[in-house]
Amino acid sequence: MSKKNGAAPIERRPRKISAQLGKKIDKLIELNRAGCPGIFSSLTGVRLPAPEISGIVIDSLKTLGLSLKADLTQLRHHLAQSLADQGASAEVIAELMGHNSTVPARAYIAATPKIAEIKTRALGKNQTYQMISDMLMTGEVVDRNGIAKNRWVKGMVGSQYIGGIGSCGLPENTACPKNPVYSCYTCPKFHPFIDGPHEEVKTSLQKQAQFFIDTAEKGIAIEHNRPITQLERTIQAVEYVIDRINNGIDGQS
Which of 51, 81, 99 is the last residue in one of the domains? Predict the structure, then answer.
C-alpha cells in the first residue's frame, strides 16, 4: 500500500490478524515511539527509498542461497502467482497486493496450470456447460484436411502473426467486418481446426492483456479499461474451444 500513501484521503481497510502477530505489531509501535528506527528506515527514522529497500530484500534472499536478478516488482509478481497457484481467490490476491481491481488477480489465476486443469476436468464433464458452449461460442470443430486454404483464418495478435486456427463460414469472397482472431472465437461462423494453434492464441492474448494491465496500473485506470475486459472475454472463449477439443465434443476425438 506504500504506493498509495500520497493519495488524499488515504484508503484504509480493516484486516483480521492473529493475536501473535498483533503482539508483534504492538511491540514494533512501542519501539518506534521510543525512538528506535522502524522497518526499512534510516538511523534518523527516515523511510528508505524503494531502490534501497529492494536491495535489502534481494541481499537477504541471497543469504538464503537464492540467486536473484530481480527487483521488488518481480517479487510482487512472484507472490501473486504463488497465491494463485495455491488456489487463492481474486479478491484475496487483490487485497494483499493492494490493487483497486480484481482484473490483475484474475490474470494470475488464468495463468495457473493447476486451476486450468481443474476447470477443464470439471467443466468438460458438465453437460450443461457443453450445451452452453455449443450454443454460444463457435461453429463445429473441424479437420483442416479438405478445407480450401482460402477459407483458413489468419490474423495478428498484437505484433504476432497467427494462422491456421480454423475456417470461416462466411460466403466466399465476403470480407469479415470484424478483426480476425480477436472476434473469431465468439463467432458461430468460425469453425476451429481440431489441431489449430489455439494454445498459442491463448498465450499471445494473455501476454497482450498483461501488457494492458501493466500500462493501466501505472495510470490507475484498470477498472474502466475496456480493452482488458474484451481480451478477457476472448481468452475465455479460446479456453472453451480448447476444452471442447480436449473433451472430444462435436464428435471429434
Answer: 99
